[in-house]
Q: What sequence folds into this?
């Protein structure tokens, strides 16, 4: 046996005798060693873990050893030579998600950085050693970074990113794993209510109305409800993120009410009615997109078809406005609105759930990590502040596109403000500009100014002849004279000047002839 193999065996024996789970990654984030305690702790899911590549995301779309490897991925900053504390996770034999803190130590071909200060030029990272805490992270306790204080407390920004990663991971392996409600992540009151309604919808066959602006995830939630993991209803089976239809599950049939004409919508319902009458099995789900734009001439007929006992096709409808409001405005039939609104799920616009923005951003970042070899840990404070100040007219769809572009632009393990699309910066610049105060228009002063200009023009054109100027303005001479005085265009006469008083009573024509 060569000396090198002897040393490797001795090192493996030493690591296997350690009291904490330990594993090693190479420079491409591939697992090259796991000590025995790690394999024992994780259980059967750790089989074939060696040779699996880690990616910094929740692993909810992966299966078997690939999913375990994703849960053991260190924060991306470690691969740039910076030691870090982060969370790791796996699903145990009990089916529960286990999350623990771990300390990651990069081994570099040169001198690695210490904390955030580089002590020398960093060479390539050749390996990363991961040391996992012996106890699970207490629920909702980010301050507990180790069972005996042996782990370093993360810096504030790093700790925030680690906690977001942990919370996204926790959500995706609990509520989202069963009901596929990824975009409903968050703690805002509106989104918690929406999640409860979705859970209610996937456990029943009642019709569902999804109310929200474009981009809020109405199509996503509609698919969630149709393909929900509920074997007893025969909707679908979710195999750790891989959705497949059962034989008893019919198709999801989308129907765009804002585009299709009345005849096509009517013929579709008639066909579904016949299908429902011919087969006892479920006939799928009809998705009425933009149902608030259903032509009025077909609403009565559709209500009649849907209300028949043999119509078994499930209905999911999306609208921008609640149907009861449209009924009150006389724009929608009350009976059809009632048939479509057994369960109502209101999806709030992103601007009304900004407290959920950090979690949504982290979720989309990790989704990009799963698709790309580039691994991003999160956003800087400045970048997150820019996103928080944006109006998000495109809602979640726009946020997903922004993160995709920022992920592509990022040149480090963190998305910085400069990595965000130009539209985010332009919006921030517009908001930052000080708006000029609105001018207050005093109507009397404004009208007096206009009148003064008209009087001056009339006097100029009449060469000072007040009678002629008065006729040009549609006034009599005394009234013109009074206005000239009141507006400061004529000097007021002295009280003892009786002839001027007599002039007030003179006939205009006579004064003009005299002039």
A:
């Amino acid at each position: 046996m060569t000396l090198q193999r002897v040393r490797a065996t001795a090192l493996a024996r030493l690591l296997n005798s350690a009291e904490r789970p330990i594993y090693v990654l190479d420079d491409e984030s591939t697992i090259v060693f796991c000590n025995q305690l790690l394999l024992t702790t994780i259980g059967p899911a750790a089989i074939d873990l060696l040779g699996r590549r880690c990616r910094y995301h929740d692993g909810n779309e992966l299966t078997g050893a690939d999913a375990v490897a994703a849960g053991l991925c260190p924060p991306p900053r470690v691969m740039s030579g910076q030691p870090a504390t982060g969370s790791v996770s796996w699903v145990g034999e009990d089916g529960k998600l286990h999350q623990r803190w771990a300390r990651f130590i990069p081994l570099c071909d040169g001198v690695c950085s210490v904390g955030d200060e580089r002590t020398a030029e960093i060479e390539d990272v050749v390996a990363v050693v991961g040391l996992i805490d012996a106890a699970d992270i207490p629920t909702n306790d980010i301050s507990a970074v180790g069972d005996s204080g042996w782990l370093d407390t993360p810096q504030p920004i790093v700790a925030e990113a680690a906690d977001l990663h942990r919370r996204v991971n926790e959500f995706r392996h609990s509520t989202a794993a069963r009901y596929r409600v990824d975009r409903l992540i968050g703690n805002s009151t509106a989104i918690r209510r929406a999640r409860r309604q979705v859970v209610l919808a996937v456990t029943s066959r009642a019709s569902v109305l999804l109310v929200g602006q474009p981009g809020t995830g109405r199509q996503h939630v509609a698919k969630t409800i149709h393909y929900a993991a509920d074997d007893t209803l025969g909707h679908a089976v979710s195999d750790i993120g891989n959705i497949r239809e059962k034989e008893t599950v019919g198709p999801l049939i989308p129907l765009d009410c804002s585009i299709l004409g009345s005849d096509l919508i009517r013929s579709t319902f008639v066909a579904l009615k016949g299908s429902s009458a011919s087969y006892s099995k479920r006939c799928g789900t009809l998705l009425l997109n933009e149902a608030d734009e259903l032509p009025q001439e077909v609403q009565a007929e559709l209500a009649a078809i849907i209300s028949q006992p043999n119509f078994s096709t499930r209905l999911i409808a999306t609208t921008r406005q609640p149907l009861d409001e449209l009924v009150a405005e006389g724009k929608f039939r009350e009976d059809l609105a009632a048939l479509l609104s057994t369960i109502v799920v209101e999806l709030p616009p992103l601007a009304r759930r900004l407290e959920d923005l950090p979690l949504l951003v982290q979720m989309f970042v990790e989704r990009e990590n799963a698709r790309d070899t580039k691994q991003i840990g999160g956003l800087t404070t400045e970048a997150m502040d820019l996103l928080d100040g944006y109006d998000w007219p495109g809602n979640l769809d726009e946020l997903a596109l922004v993160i995709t572009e920022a992920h592509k632009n990022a040149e480090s393990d963190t998305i910085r403000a400069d990595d965000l699309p130009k539209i985010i910066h332009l919006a921030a610049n517009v908001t930052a500009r000080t708006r000029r105060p609105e001018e207050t228009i005093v109507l009397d002063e404004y009208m007096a100014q206009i009148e003064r200009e008209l009087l001056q023009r009339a006097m100029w054109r009449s060469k000072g002849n007040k009678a002629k100027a008065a006729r040009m303005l549609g006034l009599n001479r005394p009234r013109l004279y009074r206005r000239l005085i009141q507006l400061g265009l004529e000097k007021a006469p002295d009280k003892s000047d009786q002839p001027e008083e007599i002039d007030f009573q003179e006939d205009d024509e006579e004064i003009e002839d005299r002039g």
